[in-house]
Amino acid sequence: IWFTSDMKQCEVINFQEKFSEIKALYKVWLKRQITPLGRVAVLKSLILSKIVYLWLLLPNPPDKLVDALQKTMYKFVWNRKQDRISRKIAIKSIAKGGLGIPKLRDYINALKLIWVRKLKTSDHKWKNIIKVTYPKVTLLEQLGSSLPIEELHLNKFWNDVFQAYKQFGRKIKVESSDELAAEPIFCNDKIQVGNRSICYKNWIDNKVFCIKNILKENGAFMTFNQFKEKYEINTDCITYIGCVQAIKSYILKTGLTIDNNMSNHMIKTLKVIYSGQKGARLYYEVLIQDANKPKCCEKWETKLNTDINWNTSFKKIQKIREIKLKWFQIRLVQRILATNVVLAHMGVEKDVTCSFCGKERDAIEHIFWRCEHVKRFWEQLQTVVNNACANGLFVNLNESIILFGHDCSFKSDDTFDLIILLAKFFIYKCKVKKNIPQFNLFRNYLKTAFEAYKYIAIINMSYDKFTKEWQFYQTLMES
Ligand SMILES: [Zn+2]
User: Fold this and answer.
1) How many Å apart are CA 200 and CA 215, to the nearest integer?
2) How many domains does the chain have?
3) Residue 307 C-alpha to ligand 1 middle, in angstroms?
4) Distance between CA 74 and CA 451 in Å, rounded?
């Protein structure tokens, strides 16, 4: 790390050097034929690891640099072509319907939050320096978001840490009345008078920090006189009532109630931060969460005219071990798998009808379920599973099981999920080659895949587990 007398320069110098190293890495990896998912893995393991310690130890780099690096990441994942999944969605984890492309600003903030945790858990000597230089920082546990960051004149590094803490606080929702009572009143975006958060310094000086401080034992708010009596704060009735009203409308929004004031809880934001064990993963997950849903969800629901449990659909994708199959299922669910309609649009294909039957328009749901040839394929698979596989399942395949790997009425096991996935992949390969999918050929295909998994299981010394997982499905491979 380069150190400069001016802290602002420090990060620029260090960062720029890494940036050119990263660009060189991109070049090397773009020469390889890997899926976008593989490139996301490269981003996380080889590229981010180069700069994580800089972000952990130095003030945040200028936004311009972060944005520039972020842009190169999207370009890298999509191999310098157009994004196929919107950026808002692609940064979500796979279990939430995204690809897990790192969102750098949140990533940097998450790393900075480690220091808030360290303020409590670490017993190193640097804490003494903080205590002397910024004595008010030690009030964090009482003040939470009300900590007067601007007044403390923190250096850039610690300022970044507490700005990250503020960002984090906005994403944390209270879930119980105890947590609600422990919420800080001041500098809290959720408690507003006249559309602005409030901060009454003389209240803070008199130890009024959080909601529970102005509650009576039965959980009701103190009257103005009771408040005056307890705290001897020089304030007027209107200010007090305005504050109480603001808190009440916040409480209303949470849907929670406070029925007694026995809470001994810590401020929720800090509780979550202290609960992080190692690293910053938990913080990052909180920071990136938002209400955006992948576009494909609505499209599928209109197309199939049914509700689909997307949580399960995406979690099933997350469980897929093989990256090739994972990427295939992501493309299918996100509706970016190349059908003849898409290929015709790109000028690669002339015909927009199904490669199997040549009658219907080629659509994902047609290729994998609705086409007559594919239906026959699935019927054969279903018959063999029901007649010859003692897996204890009664399989009645339907469109949802085939497309998304689940259905509310059907409980499957992991091996069966994998077989369905392999069958879909097989069908897709047939489609590309314009061959009608034959069940007998699939049996050979499955056998080859099985042998490969067996080999991997032996190397990983998990052969016993493997045999158990596949015990009911051997007959499927015997044609
Ligand atoms: Zn067809």
Assistant:
1) 17
2) 3
3) 25
4) 36
How many Å apart are CA 210 and CA 261, to the nearest integer? 12
Give the separation between CA 457 and CA 216, rounded to whole angstroms: 63
CA distance 364 to 124: 58
Residue 193 DSSP SS3: strand
The whole-number average pLDDT for the span 452-471 is 94
| Same structural domain, 456 and 332 | yes
Query: Are 472 and 386 in the same domain?
Result: yes
322 C-alpha to ligand 1 centroid (Å): 28
Which tokens belong to 371? Answer: 């086409």
Q: Ligand 1: distance of its center to the CA of 411 in Å?
A: 29
Name the domain boundary from 53, 74, 102: 102
Distance between CA atoms of residues 460 and 7, nearest Å: 48
The DSSP code sequence of 94-159 is GGGTS-----HHHHHHHHHHHHHHHHHH---THHHHHHHH-GGGGGHHHHGGGS-HHHHT--HHHH
**Domain range spanning residue 388?**
298-477
CA of 436 to the centre of ligand 1 (A): 9
Could you tell me the distance, in angstroms and rounded to a whole number, from the CA of residue 437 to the centre of ligand 1? 11
Do residues 125 and 230 share a domain? yes
Do residues 318 and 273 both lie within one domain? no
Gap from CA of 370 to ligand 1 centroid (Å): 7
pLDDT of 261 reads 78
State in Å: Cα 217 to ligand 1 middle: 70
pLDDT band for position 285 (cuts 50, 70, 90): very high
Q: Do 186 and 312 share a domain, yes or no?
A: no
Q: How far is the CA of 326 from the centre of ligand 1 (A)?
A: 25
User: In this structure, are 128 and 18 located in the same domain?
Assistant: no
164 C-alpha to ligand 1 centroid (Å): 53
Residue 164 pLDDT > 70, yes or no? yes
**Cα–Cα–Cα angle for 317, 318, 320, rounded to 5 degrees:** 70
**What is the model's pLDDT at position 479?**
66
Rounded distance from Cα 209 to ligand 1 centre (Å): 67
Tokens of 228: 């005056």
- Distance from residue 434's CA to the centre of ligand 1 (Å): 11
- Residue 129, Ramachandran bin (φ over 0: left; ψ between -120 and 50: alpha; else beta): alpha
